[in-house]
Each structure stands twice: as C-alpha cells, then as structure tokens.
Amino acid sequence: MSIDLSVHPRLQKKLVGHAQSLQRLQDQYVSGRLHPAWLLTGQLGIGKATLAYQFARYLLAADSENTAFYHGLIDQKAHPNLFILERSADADGKLEADIKIDKVRALSDFARQSSAVPGWRVVIIDAIDELNRNAANSILKILEEPPQQLVFLMVCHSLGAILPTIRSRCCVLPLQSLTESDLKELGMGQESTLLTEVSGGSIGGYMALKSIDVIDLLRQIIGVAQDVRQGRMQSLVAFCSGLDKKDSRTDRIPELVTWLVRQLVLGSVGIPTNTELSDKINQLCQSASVEHWLKVQKSVSDFLEMSRGAHADPIHLIQALFLLLKSPHSYRS
Fold it and tell me: Cα angle at 265 between 330 and 200, to 5 degrees?
C-alpha cells in the first residue's frame, strides 16, 4: 500500500512504524495516568504528526458509539474538543516562517473554556519548534498550569530548538526513523538503494528526493567537494551561482552533504558505501584521514544545528558547508 503525501497527516488513515509509540499513549490513557504534555520527537517526515492525529482520533472517540461521526469531525477540523496549531499559508500557498503569538492567544482561550463535548480535549502543535519566541513563552504559561483533561501533542523536529522550560514540563516520546521494511510496506525503496539510504527512514524525505534527480545532484556535490578539498574554489562558485533559492533541489543540498559526510566517515573506518555512487565516494574518502572526516562531521552537524531557525540565506549556508569539508576547524561551536 503506497501513501499519498499530498494528504495532510490529519487525514492519513495508516500509521507505519510507530505502533509501539501509539500503544504507549493509549496505555497511559487507559491507566488514568495520561501526562498532559507530550513532545513527539524525531526526524522530519517520519510520521510524528500522523501519530498525533491517530491518538487524537482514539482519545476523542473513546467510549463513543459513533466513532465514524467524531472521526469525520476531525477530518474537517470541526471537532470542538480539538485545537490545531500550525503555520498558516499565504495567498500564494507558501507557509509562514513561524507560528505567531496571535494563534497562541486563540489556544489560550480554548484552554480556559470548558469541554464542548464530555471527555478529553486535545491540542496538536505541528510543530513546537516552529513557534516564535513570544508564542513559545505563551505556550509555556499554559503548560505551567494545564487544565484538567487537556492533553498537548507537540510535534518536535529538533529537541534542542525548544525552550528548556517547555521541555521540562513535557514527556518526551522519541520516534525512530522508519526501517527498510517499513518503507517497503508503503511501496517505497524499490527504485534505488541510494534513495532509501539518503532519506534515512523518512517518508517525506524519500518522496522529496524522488521528485528530483538526486543521483545527478549528488554527483555534482561530490565533484565540487573534491575540487574544494584540493583548493579549487571556482567550481564551488559556479555551483552556487547556478542555484535557485526557490528550487526544491537547493533545499535538499544540506541534507545531501550531511549524508555524504556520514558515508565518508564510514568509508574511512573501512565500512564502504554500497550505492550507485560508491566509487566516487570512496575516491573522495581517500583524500583525507578518518580524524579529518570525524571533525568535518561534527562541524557540519554543529553548524546546521546553530543555523536552524536563524533564517540563514540557503546559498550562503551551502557555501559554508562545502568549506567545512576542507577546513572543519573554521567553525567553532
């Protein structure tokens, strides 16, 4: 069974790879000890929001004889006991950069109200690390004194990006990346070993990479990396000047560089990659020592974490990543 990623997680009827996590939430509810605030953490695109909506369906229809009716209300965003906090789209369909305080004010009103339908109420935040500072502080005030029978299900792509005071009031539920068998269950992973490896167990990542010529793009990235390693910067300048900030290929480059660096570290300790680009990756791997690639990996990881939420120019960020391949010490966390 394939999955249609054009369908919002609210409307997805299939949850793959996270059955144990869903069971944990259900068990807490049944035991009467459901924590009021949950951080659903993990890689982007692995089904965290889908899990949140699946549990919301379970909770909001609990003890009801008309499950289909309440599920229909959730599908239409019309269930009175469900509040959804997410980024809005502008007139062109582009999502806003973050979730602003005005939306959280509406959530505050919802939290103060009594339940419209007997039973639990649910707040889904997709995602908590997309709140701006004022909005995050406002959420914190609600979490400090959570109302009875109100549960927060907060999608979190980067645990380090949220306020420590919010994290301390939540129960963290880490979700693992999808396995190869999970992807095959969804009808994925048949076309290319490279696509499966680069996506790292993310459905969203797999489909996004499939929509571009990822093999050709990786060939270009490896070629530029080889030139940068040898001090030839002209190819980096030419590569970056040909990028379009609005092109989805540009958005994927930091992810591809991160994957490439991981392969270089593995190759340097004798664990070769097994993809369509193995020969080119091994050649680049041999241009430096294992110590160098380990330093590169840490610098790239720290740099991307620091850049998250900073709205950095994507092309400048890509240039910096390539320079770290040659001089990882040029970035200090």
Answer: 105
How crowded is residue 94: how many other Cβ atoms within 10 Å of its Cβ?
10
**Residue 287 burial class via C-beta count within 10 angstroms: exposed 0-12, middle 13-18, buried 19 and up:** middle
Q: Measured between alpha carbons, how far apart are the two ends of the chain, in Å?
A: 44
The amino acid at 151:
V
Residues 6+ apart with CB under 8 A from 288: 229, 264, 268
Residue range 129-146, pLDDT digits in tens: 999 999 999 999 999 999
Express each pLDDT in 239-262 by its tens digit.
Answer: 999 999 888 889 889 989 999 999
Paired sense of beta strands 37-41 and 171-174, if any? parallel
Query: Is the torsion defined by CA of 305, 306, 310, 313 positive or negative?
Result: negative
Question: Smallest Cα–Cα separation from 49: which of 73, 24, 85?
Answer: 85
Question: Partners of 124 in the beta sheet?
Answer: 84, 153
